[in-house]
Amino acid sequence: MEMRQNIVFVGAGSMAEAMISGMLQKELFLPNQISVMNRSNYARLEGLNKEYGVTISQNKQETIENAGVILLAIKPKDVAEAVLAIKDHVNENQLIISVLAGVSTTTITDLLNKEVAVVRAMPNTSATIGKSATALSVGMYASEDHLLIARQLFETIGIVTTVAEKDLHAVTGLSGSGPAYVYYLVEAMEKAADDIGLEKAIAKELILQTIIGAAEMLKSSPKPPALLRKEVTSPGGTTEAGIKVLEQFKYQQAMVSCIKRATARSAELGEAMLQSVSEKN
């Protein structure tokens, strides 16, 4: 599907690049429908132009005014500076999509001081390989049509779900930060493999396929994870011996506490961001 309207990325980091790559692969946009701008790193913009054929421009007014969708992909701490810099060129017929963790849709509309539709997204870093888990929420001026546009964009880099904006902190703690929890587990498995004498390359292959296989089982089987675990945990066997050690170290409780703390930290950062923006606005 090809979209008729233009899109401009404000920010040119890894998430912006992942989305550009996904949108072009899925033919949602043509290269000449995509513009990218950032604050100062022109070399980065030239690299994206060379790789994807997207438009780069120093004419901020023209670029913003000609866009149907404006996607904010800068660092959250830079939101006030970035939004205020484009404020005069934004109109109420456009759609703003934000991937800024902790920055509410209300904060963005307040900075713009206009009744502009804002959709907020929380993807994760697996977007770079088209495997993101993204949650969307809508601001007060966003319609179902706006949500549909955002869904189409983020489906180019993975799966998409919709939640109330108040739940985005939980999404951040669970799936937004989630890849790091898996990487941390793999670090431990690699260290254990080294301790028990397995060659690193062999261990890595076995670990990755084990995780991929388990994930596919969870995805394809109607059985809950607890049942799948019990089915491979024979009484008196090796798996049971390993699980008992995890229970001694309260592994599940640690993971629950991890996700709860990450969720709380997202809320804390959101409050701090709101305070910072209100002081600058």
Give an overview in words.
This protein is of the alpha/beta class and 281 residues long. The chain folds into two domains: 7-165, Rossmann fold (3-Layer(aba) Sandwich); 178-261, ProC C-terminal domain-like fold (Orthogonal Bundle). The protein has twelve helices and eight strands. It has helices spanning 14-25, 42-52, 60-65, 79-86, 105-112, 144-154, 168-176, 178-195, 200-220, 225-231, 238-248, 251-280; strands at 7-10, 34-37, 55-56, 69-72, 95-98, 117-122, 132-138, 158-162. The protein has an eight-stranded mixed sheet, sandwiched between helices. Helix 7 crosses helix 12 and helix 8 (178-195) packs across helix 9 (200-220). It is elongated, with a radius of gyration of 22 Å.
Which sheet architecture does the biggest sheet show?
Answer: 8 strands, mixed
The helix/strand class is: alpha/beta
As a percent range, the share of strand residues is 5-15%
CATH architecture of the largest domain: 3-Layer(aba) Sandwich
Task: Write out the strand line-up for the largest beta sheet, numbering strands in chain order.
Answer: 3-2-1-4-5-6-7-8
Instruction: Name the poorly predicted regions.
Output: none
Globular, elongated, flat, extended or rod-shaped: what is the shape?
elongated
CATH topology of the largest domain: Rossmann fold
The overall average pLDDT, rounded, is 93
The helix fraction, in percent, is 40-55%
CATH classification, class level of the largest domain: Alpha Beta
> How many alpha or pi helices?
12
Rg is 22 Å
Q: How widely separated are the two ends? A: 39 Å
Name given to the CATH homologous superfamily of the largest domain: NAD(P)-binding Rossmann-like Domain
Q: How many domains would you count in the coordinates? A: 2
Overall number of strands: 8
Order of helices and strands: EHEHEHEHEHEEHEHHHHHH
